[in-house]
């Protein structure tokens, strides 16, 4: 089976199985799967299938995200880390020289994530509410970027509040916006536009917008930078 690098998407590979396009990352912990994903050996490397129906970031890459700002050695703040499905693939990409600070307020999900952190030493668990970044201010260093997948109202505001506290100048963000968590009475497209405007008036530039359907309904992913 052949794995091909994706231009401007470091650490993520395309392969084909039964003529179906799939994504993968190189397993940081060979022999260990995280959520039951397939492990595939090729050219003395072990790849992990990155399920596009389980990860919004994988879906965005699959649907044509033109650039991924996550690199080897990146320091990332992950808001809404849950049990760590997507974080585990980011962990593969950044390697042992990088770090992910994973924030979530759900105790059950955090227990699963803590277990993952015991295997993957570049993951750091933080049980906290992303709406209150002051509560974990002393636990996190300045970060290269923020990945956020939080099903709460005021999603853009949550990102901005955390970015102003933790993000490096000109740092990047990847924001998953779920319209149904913001306003179920409005068309999703209108909600997305309103959240984008909130970012832009606060000096956050949206460089790319990817609609995540059919993999995640009523979701978009914004990629951008803090000016």
Q: What overall form do the CA principal axes indicate?
A: globular
The neighbouring-strand order within the major sheet is: 8-7-6-9-10-12-11
Please state the average pLDDT score.
Answer: 95
Please give the count of helices: 5
CATH superfamily of the largest domain: Vaccinia Virus protein VP39
Looking at this protein, list some descriptive labels.
227 residues; alpha/beta; 5 helices; globular
Structure, explained:
The structure is a single chain. The protein folds into 2 domains: 4-52, Phosphorylase Kinase, domain 1 (2-Layer Sandwich), CATH 3.30.200; 60-226, 3-Layer(aba) Sandwich (Rossmann fold). It has helices spanning 56-62, 85-94, 107-119, 155-166, 188-201; strands at 4-6, 9-17, 20-26, 39-42, 45-50, 75-79, 99-104, 123-127, 143-148, 167-178, 204-211, 219-226. The mean pLDDT is 95. The protein has 5 helices and 12 strands. The protein is α/β, with parallel strands linked by helices.
Helix and strand topology:
Layout: E1 4-6, E2 9-17, E3 20-26, E4 39-42, E5 45-50, H1 56-62, E6 75-79, H2 85-94, E7 99-104, H3 107-119, E8 123-127, E9 143-148, H4 155-166, E10 167-178, H5 188-201, E11 204-211, E12 219-226
Parallel strand pairs: 6-7, 6-9, 7-8, 9-10
Antiparallel strand pairs: 1-2, 2-3, 3-5, 4-5, 10-12, 11-12
Could you write a compact summary of the structure shown?
This protein is 25% helix and 35% strand. With 227 residues, the chain is of the alpha/beta class.
